[in-house]
Amino acid sequence: MTGHLVRRAMRCADVKGNRQKRGEIDAKRRNADEWLRLQAQKAAEHRRLRDYGIALARAEVAVVTSALAPSNSYSIPDFVERGTYRPEPFVCKDCGVAEVWTPLQQKWWYETAKGDVFTKAVRCRACRTKERTRKSAARRVHLEGLARKKPSAT
Predict the structure, then answer these.
(1) What whole-number distance in Å separates Cα of residue 123 and Cα of residue 12?
(2) pLDDT tens digits, residue range 62-89?
């Protein structure tokens, strides 16, 4: 009789309830989903590295996303998605000369100067210098005018 009770107890230990079965099924599904996510992530990284190698062959410069200024936008700029800066042609809005915004200039603007990631070059170097001079002269004249208006403290 003791052997019969032992066998019965062992059979009962093997029987699982629905909650326990559901938990095991959900755990397997989570593991499978995690594995698929990791495989997709590896494939995306492989594609990114392949594209990066192609970009380096084209004389493009890599983007360091951690060095970019923070942006509150929901969209991602093309160069960040691509992972490289490419030469971008533009026409100067002041003199109309066709120029190329080089990858190194873009890297400096976005990563060192912390420029907004959605801005593009619009002026050639000569026109940028002229505009900077014009603005500083206008600022100086404005501040001198404010200083003349201000009543003396004595």
Answers:
(1) 81
(2) 888 888 988 888 899 999 998 889 999 9
Instruction: Please tell me the distance from the alpha carbon of residue 106 to that of residue 117, in angstroms, as a whole number.
Output: 10
Q: Tell me the one-letter amino acid at 140.
A: R
What separation in angstroms does the CA of 55 have from each of 58, 114, 121?
A: 5, 23, 21
Closest C-alpha to 67, from 86, 87, 85 = 85
- Chain-centre distance of CA 33, in angstroms? 26
Burial class (CB in 10 A: 0-12, 13-18, 19+), 13: exposed
The label of the residue with tokens 């001198």 reads 144
Quick one: the chain helix, strand, coil %, rounded to 5? 60, 10, 30
Contacts for 45-54 with beta carbons within 8 Å, 24 or more apart? 48/83, 51/82, 51/83, 52/83, 52/84
Range with the largest mean pLDDT of 15-19, 46-50, 83-87, 136-140:
136-140
**pTM summary value:** 0.55
